[in-house]
Amino acid sequence: MGLLVRNFPWEKTALGAIEQWPQSLRTAAGICLHAAFPSLLCWGDEFFMIYNDAYSQLIDKKHPVALGSTVSETWPESWPVLKERFEKVYQHGESFHHENQGFRLPRNGEERTFYFTYSYSPVYDESDSIGGVCCHLIDVTGIYEEKITKEQLRYRQALLEAQNETIPDGILIVDTKGGMISCNKHFKEIWDMPQDIIDEMNDQAALEFAMTKLVDPEGFIKRVDYLYANGNEASKEEIFFKSGKIIERHGNAVIGDDGTNYGWAWYFRDISERKKMEEALRHSEQMFRSIVMQAPVGMAIYKGEDHIVEVVNDYYLSFAGKKREEVEGKPFQQVFQFFGEDDFDRILDAVLQTGQPYHSGEHKYSVQQAGKLTEMYASVLFQPLLDTKGKVSKIMAIVLDITDQVMARREIEAVVSERTLSLKETNLKLQRSNDELEQYAYVASHDLQEPLRKIKTFAGMLNDLSANAGEKEKQLLQKIMTSSERMSVLINDILNFSKLTHFEASFINTNLNQILQHVLNDLELEIENMQVRIEAGNLPGIEAIPIQMNQLFFNLIGNSLKFAKPDIPLVIRVKALEVDEERRKSFPSIDPSLSYTELVFTDNGMGFDQQYAEKIFTIFQRLNNRSYKGSGIGLALCRRIVQYHRGEIFAISTEGEGAAFHVILPVKQRS
Questions:
Q1: pLDDT in tens, 228-239
Q2: β-strands 533-536, 571-579 pairing
Q3: Is the dihedral of CA 372, 376, 378, 382 positive or negative?
Q4: At residue 543, what are phi and psi to the nearest 5 degrees?
Q5: What mean pLDDT value characterizes the chain?
Q6: How many helices (DSSP H) and strands (DSSP E) are in the chain?
Q7: What is the pTM of this model?
């Protein structure tokens, strides 16, 4: 390399002829050329390259062109990085050192990675200025790769050991003669192997101990011996323990790339639970199949996208008029064409794809039975069946013959239609009867009132002329006037009761305070004469028919006036209570979705026995003698009004201690 440097035309470069080189350059070049390791001298601010034989071998095909060239010309691909390093050394005198650095270098026509420990240092000239940069390299590729290989080997060994300890299988590695090399903790746990055998890797003791665990130790030994003799065969078997445990064993020969047999790897997996589940699944499938076969309805199982008939019972076959061998294992559409009119094959596709069941309802179809086409009715259900992954894999079909029910229903419908017609006729007769009753009520109120009025008039005239009549005649005349008055009241009450049945009016917002005041005004004279005290709280506004509310209040307050105690001043209290949710539960007949108010009319009058609390609301029912005025219709009228308003009315009383009438009415009527 020294001869090549001396003969190089340096005079064509910025360095000039070699005879003109400064002593510092000559000395540095000599040191570089005689170094035992790759050395590179880069001189001047353009970094012209001078290197030795060891370096020329590294750069391969770049030699000898690189001699006398600049670094940027020789290594253009690396110059952006090298430039910064060279300038730090050349301009600032910084030296630095790197170990085990990889470089992609050409070698024998291809590139590969080489590893170097190298340093950059400044070279000073005669003026004690930096004249160049010297780079020394030591090829550590072999050492570094050996180190990497060992680290990778240790890593892989650690990884393999961690993997062996993590996986749930028991692993045993043996040599070609069955000698134990290694095992993991799961091997020890599966076989319950004593620790001293594991520590000593005593293969004979391990085998003898294992044989005590097995149901068929001799068979196990024969199979293992066979595998040792036939190293190219992999094996798999189930081993049964005396304890009931079942182990799945896999055996694989460990073969090198060159075909060398290094031993055996044995894998042991406890499959006891899996076997139990498989057995339970088989039992479940058998039970399911038995249920399908014995079901009192038609049942079949369709499998896969083609809806292959997997299971079908005799009941189902009766719908198709086919034999089992003609149906099982064949697509639905091929064997059950009698359902084709409703395109059940397309419906089965939808059930399989969406997982949504399908129910046909009442399905009409025709089937060949006893050589003739018979019209029948069935209810068809397609229920998706999911596999362990939650995907629909099968469809269960349930078919129920409802022909008899359909026919029976049609007969019932015919009877109902006939009865409906009869009921309409009855309703018409009832309507005519109601019309006649209404006409009768009109006659009672209008035609009968006229002769009654004359009786009352003539009785009054007789009374005026009876000044000289005897006591007995006066009593008879008084009875005539009293009876005629009662009859007039009775006729009016009957008319009111009849009108309420057919009354049609709109519910409007009604101020109950105003209703109460109107009633008290009507009864003002009687209240003053009896010296009655009225205590009334604030009453709510509700949706009601005002005239009926007036009748309700008038009759309830009038009832208290009628049954006042003669020796005790009468007190009548009227108040309103809010009906909460718990209170509403006490009245099943009212609508729980509505809000209600409870009106309470209380007095300190005569009262009555609680056992008659229901009887008093019956028309013409009286609990006292006829010395009390009234017809016995008033409270019946109250109940009719409250019922028309979709409410409840009841009374609570103790005889001699007054009475309380409770009226429960909706605040707003149901729309």
A1: 777 677 778 899
A2: parallel
A3: positive
A4: -85, 115
A5: 82
A6: 22, 23
A7: 0.35
